[in-house]
Design brief:
Order of helices and strands: HHHHHEEEHHHHHHHHHHHHHH
Strand content: under 5%
Structural class: mainly alpha
Oligomer: single chain
Helix content: 55-70%
Number of helices: 19
Length: about 475
């Protein structure tokens, strides 16, 4: 090997040997963020030493070996992570109550499924800088709070634009990259982690499982009694079940407030500015505002009245189903009452009252590393939608951004890509995977119009829009 590399620079030889060692399965994940940098270095230098045909053969072999090694590494990591979850589940298999035991089993199986799906779809972020940053953040929180000392933990960083983190219990977390988009600095991100760690310390997952088990047992008892009693009992039992459901939701909201309280204490022990915890919730509230944006009908004319394909009013037509008109099937359900998370405004107000926190004029300064990770996730915003094949949602966000004159630099390229994928999905009969059916009696008219617009477009019209914006992007023209 060394003899073959004679004549190359010492830096290149070092990089090549490192790469070769990696391909022999002696590498760690930390190697892979620099992997393509090494390949580029390898390609440029070898181009000067070998004839083009031989260079192409070497590169092909190199890439095939690399892909194989990477796949093997991911499979090994997946099996190791699944075993970790199975070890967490093991003590709960001894739960005496049969229904509780079944709920625990389903709970851990759902975690295993999420992990398997994450590896299979490439949803988990393997970037060493991001993983190290989060690992150090967790360690700092645990170190600053003596009641968490020596507690083990594990997390997965998922490509997901929703700014959220999720505790599964047993100090196992799923963290969305969207947090980097919406948080202004690392202190705010750590505030979210403190909240999730508080859920674990307060054993909220275990409490919820016990509560749901009791609810299920009550429901089964009630259902058995219905076999012997009149129909009126069914109506009364429905009201009772809904009352119990509201009670479960109320308990869940109380858990969120408790996690906010203890999470804030965990955060204060880090000696960070207390108001950053408050600002973290305010930024998550900003996401709720962004998500509630409505597309104006005029935007469809602005974007889709094209040369060679004029806008047609029929594209926005919504066919009503008169048979079910006026029926929403929510007569007995107060949606706000069964939300498990309190309204963010309520949580912000509670923190203000409980801890006398005031909003800052602006957030604290972020570290260069946090800003670097934030820039990466912002650049990955639409590719994240594409990786998860969320083309309909991506298009809705994109039109809203164009409507608000936000980040329209790559809008043409994204429109071209989305409509190309939607056109191909029509040909493959998978369109409904990416665009939901029109909810004919929905009260959300903007979303209703959006879905109706996409379903009303013909295959050729979808294709034309995609090709138009692809060409616009290739010509470096903006909207």
């Amino acid at each position: 090997m060394t003899k073959c590399l004679e004549g190359f620079s010492p830096i290149f030889v070092h990089d090549f040997i490192l790469t070769n060692d990696a391909l022999q399965n002696t590498f760690q994940v930390d190697f892979w963020p620099h992997y393509w940098e090494i390949i580029i270095n390898f390609t440029e230098l070898i181009r000067l030493k070998l004839n083009p045909r031989f260079m192409r053969i070497i590169l092909l072999i190199f890439c095939l070996m690399s892909c194989s090694s990477w796949a093997q590494l991911m499979e090994q990591n997946k099996e190791k992570d699944l075993q970790y979850v199975q070890d967490l589940a093991s003590p709960f298999k001894k739960t005496k109550d049969k229904i509780e035991r079944a709920i625990y089993s389903n709970h851990f199986k759902s975690i295993e499924h999420r992990i398997s799906r994450g590896y299979h779809n490439g949803i988990f972020i393997q970037d060493a800088a991001s993983i190290d940053f989060l690992n150090q953040s967790f360690q700092a929180i645990f170190k600053a709070n003596s009641i968490l000392k020596n507690q083990s933990f594990k997390f997965f960083l998922e490509r997901n634009n929703v700014p959220n983190a999720y505790s599964t219990g047993s100090y196992l977390y799923f963290i969305h990259t969207g947090l980097f988009n919406y948080m202004d600095n690392e202190q705010q991100l750590m505030a979210v982690l403190c909240h999730e760690i508080a859920h674990d310390y307060l054993r909220h997952t275990e409490e919820s499982i016990v509560q749901y088990a009791e609810f299920e047992k009550d429901f089964k008892r009630e259902f058995k009694s219905l076999k012997r009693k009149e129909l009126l009992k069914l109506i009364k039992s429905q009201d009772e079940i809904l009352k119990q459901k509201y009670d479960l939701a109320d308990q869940s909201r109380k858990k969120e407030i408790a996690a906010d309280s203890l999470g804030f204490i965990f955060f204060k022990n880090l000696n960070y500015h207390p108001e950053e915890y408050y600002m973290a919730l305010k930024n998550m509230e900003r996401f709720d505002v962004d998500e509630a944006q409505k597309i104006q009908d005029s935007m469809y004319i602005h974007l889709f009245d094209l040369p060679g394909q004029a806008f047609q009013e029929k594209w926005l037509r919504i066919e009503k189903d008169d048979f079910f008109s006026g029926l929403s099937f929510t007569e007995h359900v107060d949606e706000d009452s069964i939300q498990s998370h309190p309204n963010l405004i309520d949580r912000v107000n509670w923190l203000h009252t409980k801890f006398q926190l005031q909003p800052q004029e602006k957030s604290g300064t972020a570290s260069p590393l946090f800003l670097e990770l934030k820039q990466k996730t912002e650049a990955d915003f639409y590719p994240t939608f594409y990786a998860k094949k969320q083309y309909g949602v991506a298009l809705y966000y994109l039109i809203c951004q164009v409507q608000s004159n936000e980040n329209t630099k790559d809008a043409a390229a994204n429109l071209g890509h989305i409509f190309k994928q939607l056109y191909e999905s029509r040909l493959n009969y998978t369109f409904n995977k990416y665009v939901p059916q029109v909810e004919q009696n929905s009260t959300d008219k903007a979303w209703q119009t959006f879905t109706a617009f996409l379903w009303n477009l013909s295959n050729e019209e979808l294709k034309y829009i995609g090709e138009h914006y692809q060409q616009l992007s290739e010509d470096n023209l903006t909207l």
